[in-house]
Amino acid sequence: MMPKWTIFDYVDPVEGNLFKAWSSCLQKKELAKLNNRLDALSTHGPELIPGILSPTGLASIFKLKIHGNVQLRPLLCEGPGRGEEAFTLLLGAFEVSNDYVPIGAPLIASRMRESLIKDMRRRVIHERVG
User: Fold this and answer.
1) Cα(76)–Cα(87) distance, integer angstroms
2) CB-CB contact of 11 with 115 (8 Å)
3) Rounded to two decimals, what is the model's pTM?
4) How far apart are CA 1 and CA 58, in angstroms?
């Protein structure tokens, strides 16, 4: 099945592609799970299995649930361009004992999204690791 949703990575003006850097630090098994989930997201968009793409409690910020020995919780937003079938990966995060690592991850991701809306050049096509 051909991907119909485009996946982007947020690019910090100083630190570069933080999502790529986060992905590069994952173990091979977690990275494979992440890549499988991102492939499913690009194929099915928000129509993924219920509970996989979940709200974080902050407007427009979602978490992608990836279970395993390490609970991956990449944070992303839809778009944010009007009418585009796209997601932007904002921040790599983990869930440990029902808390985000880094602490306040959804708020950090929300600020990244706001920065992206002001300057859409702050994203690149997703750079797959592994």
Assistant:
1) 7
2) no
3) 0.95
4) 32
Q: What amino acid occupies position 129?
A: V
Q: What is the DSSP letter of 2?
A: -
- Give the span between the Cα atoms of 55 and 52, in whole angstroms: 10
Helix (H, G, I), strand (E, B), or coil: what is residue 122? Answer: coil
The secondary structure of 69-83, three-state, reads CCEECCEEEECCCCC
Give me 97's structure tokens: 């004992």
User: Is residue 78 within 8 Å of 46, Cβ to Cβ?
Assistant: yes
pLDDT tens, N- to C-terminus, the chain (130 residues)? 777 999 999 999 999 999 999 999 999 999 999 999 999 999 999 888 888 999 999 999 999 999 998 999 999 999 998 889 999 999 999 999 999 999 999 999 999 999 999 999 999 999 999 8
